[in-house]
Specification:
54% of the residues lie in helices and 0% in strands. Helix 1 crosses helix 2. The longest helix has 23 residues.
């Protein structure tokens, strides 16, 4: 994970912002896709936190284990 953060930071340093397009890469790493996924995860985490604070149910993102009865 740390390498992705470093590459994202270096991409931002070169471009002056962190709004990378989806096809953006830095040293072979797909920083655009990684940033899109990181933003989506942050939005999901914020929504889960909001629902918990309001006492609403939160669905597990872990899913069911294969082979479980």
């Amino acid at each position: 994970m740390g390498g992705r953060i470093v590459r994202g930071a270096r991409w931002a340093a070169e471009h002056g912002h962190l709004l990378a397009p989806l096809d953006a890469t830095y040293q072979g790493a797909a920083v655009g896709i990684w940033l899109k996924n990181a933003r989506a995860a942050a939005r999901k985490a914020a929504e889960v936190e909001r629902r918990r604070a309001e006492g609403l149910p939160v669905q597990s993102s872990a899913g069911r284990c294969r082979g479980a009865a």
